[in-house]
Every structure is written in C-alpha cells, then in structure tokens.
Amino acid sequence: MLHNYLLNSAKGVLHIVNNYTGDRAAFRDAAEELEDEGITVKTIFVDDDVAVKDSLYTVGRRGVAGNFFVIKAVGAAAEKGASLDELVALGDRVNDVIRSMGMALTGCTPPAKGEPIFTLAEDEVEMGVGIHGEPGRAREKLTSANEIVDRMLEAILTDSKPISETETAAPIFNNGDEVALMINGLGGTPISELYLLYGYAHEQLEAKGIKVWRSYVGEYCTSLEMAGMSITLCKVDDELKDLLLAPAEIPIRVF
User: Fold this and answer.
1) CATH ID of 2-74, from 3.40.50.10440, 3.20.20.100, 3.40.190.10, 3.90.1150.10
2) Which fold has domain 98-254?
3) Do residues 240 and 77 touch, judged by C-beta distance below 8 A?
4) What residues are annotated to the active site?
5) How far, in Å, CA of 248 to CA of 158, rounded?
6) How far apart, in whole angstroms, are the C-alpha atoms of residue 141 and residue 131?
7) Which of 63, 110, 189, 250 is 20 to 30 Å apart from 130, CA to CA?
8) pLDDT in tens, 47-98
9) Helix or strand or coil: residue 87?
10) How many CB atoms lie within 10 A of CB 14?
11) What is the pLDDT of residues 221-254, one digit of tens each?
C-alpha cells in the first residue's frame, strides 16, 4: 500500500496484475482502500499462459512472463504522458498479443515450505508449469531440447483464446507477422542453455514465416531456483516497437 501512496499522482494509480486468484484478491483489496482515500485506481490483468485455462490457482488463464511486455509498453506510454484510461487500453491490447508457455525439470523450494513444491524424476519434464510452481498441462518423459521447444511453439502458435463461453478467437500469429521472442529462465537454468534454446526457436519461427524483430534472453520472470524456462511471443506493430525500444532502467538491468 505504501508504494501506491508514493506513486500516486493526480492521474491515479495503475495496477498490472498476473491472473492468479490470490493476486487478484490482494490488488482488489488495495484498490478498495485507495478508492476510499479518493484515489482513482485502474487494473490490467495479464493472462498470457497457453498451458492451462483453469486451475486451483486461477479463474481463467495464468499470467506469466508475458507481463514483461505489458509493463514495458505501459511504462513507456506513461512516461510520454498517456492518460490512465489510455494506459489501460494499451495494456489490454498488449495482453491480447502475447502468448507464453513454460517447462520445468525441477520444482522450486519456497522458504516458508522448506521443500520442493513438486519433484520430478531425472527422465521427466513438467510441461506448462506456472511461475509459482503450479502444475502444468502434462508430466512427460524427457526428450530432446529441440522437441520440447517444438511442442511449446506449437502450443503457442495454434492457441485460440476464448472470447466467450462458446467462441474462441483465431490464432494470432500468422505468416508475415513480426514478433518479439523471449526465452525466459526460471531461475536455475544456465544462460548458455537459454541461448541454445533461443537459437532453435528463432530458426523454427523464421521457417514458419514469422520474423523475429527483437529477442530477449535471460531471467525476466523467475521461480526461485527452478530449473526450466518459458517461451513468450509478443506480436508487434510500429507503435509497440517504439514503446518496447524506449529506454528504461531498473536496479538489475537497463532495457
């Protein structure tokens, strides 16, 4: 709450929230307190994960590493003076053009729990794992890195996001599109391995007629010491390119 007060201006406060039940509840409570103080609050919910549509932790899709693109674009637009309503519209638009999927070879160990959330045999992989260690869509036998990337890209590229209880939107990535490609380490994967995965993913996208405009390889959205990674694609246009290229600096890196 203190951060909300410190960041508040006459224009109000914007929350960018990953779509988890607990996160939604916490930010809802914070928004209600701020509104009681006369502060305008708007919220963007990020739900880029294609792995699961519902789980014990969410109603609808989860928000994962794609939140980077929402935060980066909205932050750049705010710096340029966009209104709160304009920022919400932009954030929702960016959320509509990002898709992600993760995989893990090990679980993570929350300090309060003291033991891994889940365990895998040496020949197993958790496909579609969440950033808090939530279960994925399937636990499978470990295959080659290239085969795993192929399956993840297939899930992302063919994903049809629900637009109502009876309708789904068409897949958003098509031949001729430009994308930002993120290979995100979950905390325990060497950067050298992430670059190997990136190289293959880049080749496969280009072979499908999808141009990789910009690449992001590293730890952007981690899960403690989990060995694994996620792939995010963000479909870009000229406006979004400008916003993603806008300079930004945080304590651990410069964008």
Assistant:
1) 3.40.50.10440
2) Hypothetical Protein Tm841; Chain: A;domain 3 (3.30.1180)
3) no
4) 132
5) 32
6) 21
7) 250
8) 999 998 755 555 678 999 999 999 999 999 999 999 999 999 999 999 999 9
9) helix
10) 18
11) 998 888 999 999 999 999 999 999 999 887 776 6
